[in-house]
Amino acid sequence: MRSLKLVLAAAAVLCAASVTAEAGSCMRVGAIGDGLTHDLAVIMSTHGLANIIDHKGLKAKGPVHTTCAPTTFLTECRSTQTACK
Q1: Which residue among 9, 27, 29, 49 is least crowded, i.e. fewest CB within 10 A of its CB?
Q2: Residues in a beta bridge with 60
Q3: Tell me, what DSSP letter sits at residue 1?
Q4: What DSSP character marks residue 47?
Q5: What burial letters (b/e) apply to 55-67, b meaning 16+ CB within 10 Å?
Q6: Spatial distance between the Cα atoms of 3 and 78, rounded to a whole number of angstroms
């Protein structure tokens, strides 16, 4: 549940901070996910990223970049990708 809240919070921040996409324009989209293991955190962030891109009606372009860092009890990962209208 916390992961979903983080992904939604990241989506809200990106929506507020990003310029409205015009036809043919691209933007960098990101998502945050956490989990008990590194692999679970990567899955949460990459799937969250795919959901955000799909919800915005964009097409993913290029590779997904993911960085992870341990927190007190969990691992937190941030995934970003370029997406175009």
Answers
A1: 9
A2: 83
A3: -
A4: H
A5: ebebeeeeeeebe
A6: 12
Q: Kindly state the tokens that stand for 66.
A: 């993911």
Contact by Cβ (8 Å): 62, 28: no
What are the distances in angstroms from CA 3 to CA 6, 15, 18, 22, 24?
Answer: 5, 18, 22, 30, 31
pTM of the model: 0.70
Helix (H, G, I), strand (E, B) or coil at 40: helix
The pair of structure tokens assigned to 54 is 């799909």
